[in-house]
Description:
Largest sheet: 6 strands, mixed
Number of helices: 15
Structural class: alpha/beta
Radius of gyration: 25 Å
Order of helices and strands: HHHHHEEEHEHEEEHEHHHHEHEHEEH
Number of strands: 12
Strand content: 5-15%
Helix content: 40-55%
Amino acid sequence: MGLDNFTAQKRASGGGAAGGLPTTTANGRARTMFSRGRQINKTFNNIKITILCGFVTILVLRGTMGIGNLGSSDADAVNKNLIEETNRVLKEIRSDNDPDDPADLEINPNATYTLGPKISNWDLERKVWLSQNPEFPNFVNGKPRILLLTGSPPNPCDNSIGDHYLLKGIKNKIDYCRIHGIEIVYNMAHLDKELAGYWAKLPMIRRLMLSHPEIEWIWWLDSDAMFTDMVFQIPLSKYDKHNLVIHGYPDLLFDRKSWIALNTGSFLFRNCQWSLDLLDAWAPMGPKGPIREEAGKILTANLKGRPAFEADDQSALIYLLLSQKDQWMDKVYIENQYYLHGYWAGLVDRYEEMIEKYHPGLGDERWPFVTHFVGCKPCGSYGDYPVERCLRSMERAFNFADNQVLNLYGFGHRGLLSPKIKRTRNETVTPLEYVDQFDIRRPVHGNSGSRS
């Protein structure tokens, strides 16, 4: 069954036409009725957390300063109650069950899903807006404006170490964006509960395009991917005639129809009508429940090597590009000259070799631009690889990249597995000499992206 047939079958069973109201819009009134109750519940949760923090502070002060006259048995009881209450509130925060959430109301599974009202004249509207708002140019110093979009689920991780590595991941991305003048958005909200999980990026990308017409490129990067070449810059002039840039291999896509021919953990979308149209065509397989499950069967039947599971955004994009090649592929650039996505298992153990033989700014297998920890789930309770291996590898990747940043300051990590740092050179009364020599905003190894 093709994608067109998948949509047509849903329409024939009672769904609306493509471009109709999204399923969430159909329940818009219910959302308004319940919004106040949701806000009150969230406010109570915040108050509870504040009170718990106050209890913790009192206990810490009592232990360190000796205040209070509570006996040991009373203190133990307080500690026990505090732990129980803390765990209860955290469990409530992590839960997706909100009795007042209108998104949990029954929806029509036969309605054709859309990301929003159909937009058909975006290029002209955006052009007019840019001309009327010169203070928001889409090119700065001759370079197109880029917005890096990343994010993580709104709930806490299943374990504290997962939250720690999410923090390291966003620190890594902020460093890269600061160095290269890229704007960054970290999203922790499900803008559409029907597109939770790996589909959550689609409504956010669309919303950013429409809300920030001054942005020329939206760059999605998974939270489990890190920049490991802090010098390399994407050669955007290479893609002047393209609207989607994604890492992959054409032979795997067209000859083998492999479900891993492309990787949607790191890709760039131009802010244009074509991209909005592709998002509209991409999204209908994403709503959770029966739609996503049935679409998963189609993808497994048509993509080589794909296991049987619900539809994911990567498989859906690959299937879309294969089944509607003439419509989309002219504007898609499949990139593999550098690692817009680099699979971590073959890279992290070679960092020492890279340091010895090569230098940042190459972006390819010699010094990977992005190291992506596909299959590692440090934030969750499961994964394709042992958590110890994943955490060790993520620590090495973070420190490998962080050394490139710290080098300007005269420091570096004691080892790729150590959070501790050491001084790498002595301070001087002429610090600007070091800025000229070590500032990675002006690489000394030639143009970034070159393959020397």
